[in-house]
Design goal:
The chain is α/β, with parallel strands linked by helices and 157 residues long. It has one domain: Rossmann fold. Helix content is 52%, strand content 16%. Helix 1 links the parallel strand 1 and strand 2. It is globular, with a radius of gyration of 16 Å.
């Protein structure tokens, strides 16, 4: 497995679906799990250990409110961890919980509810040592550029 996505709760699934769409596009091996850092820390530890045993290269943690999950994942692995703050009623709380990590425990944080950017960043990390994936990601970026140009041309009179 290349990427392990861990949700703080099942209610985070709509954000995870944005991530899944990116991971599916690039045909990488991934899994999506649910494990609360606060309610089930030992269970979370088992998920991290199992993922590492399966060759996981990148972890993505998605959580809202007191979003400790990505930081706790970072404390359990030396692999890169990407944090996705999940919005809800107090999105700033989840953002700050993820982005304000102590020295030596980095978590790369994407925007609130940006599961798609978490997936893209995970792909970029994997692509740094995979030429085929790097080419596919470059093509994806070129498609985005073409779309912007088409949109611009479509509104010109």
């Amino acid at each position: 497995m290349d990427i392990c996505v861990v949700l703080g709760s099942k209610s985070d699934m709509p954000v995870a679906e944005k991530c899944r769409a990116i991971l599916e596009r690039f045909d990488v091996d991934y899994e999506i799990r649910v494990a609360s850092a606060h309610r089930a820390p030992k269970y979370l530890e088992g998920i991290i250990e199992s993922a590492e045993s399966s060759g996981c290269k990148v972890f993505i943690g998605m959580a809202g409110v007191a979003a400790a999950l990505p930081g706790v994942i970072a404390s359990m692995t030396t692999k890169p961890v990407i944090g996705v703050p999940v919005g809800g009623k107090v999105p700033l709380d989840s953002l700050l919980s993820i982005v304000q990590m102590p020295p030596g425990m980095p978590v790369a944080t994407v925007g609130v509810d940006r599961g798609d950017n978490a997936g893209a960043l995970a792909i970029q990390i994997l692509a740094s040592s995979d030429d085929k994936l790097s080419s596919a990601y470059s093509e994806y970026r070129s498609e985005m550029t073409s779309k912007v140009i088409q949109d611009d041309e479509s509104i010109q009179g």
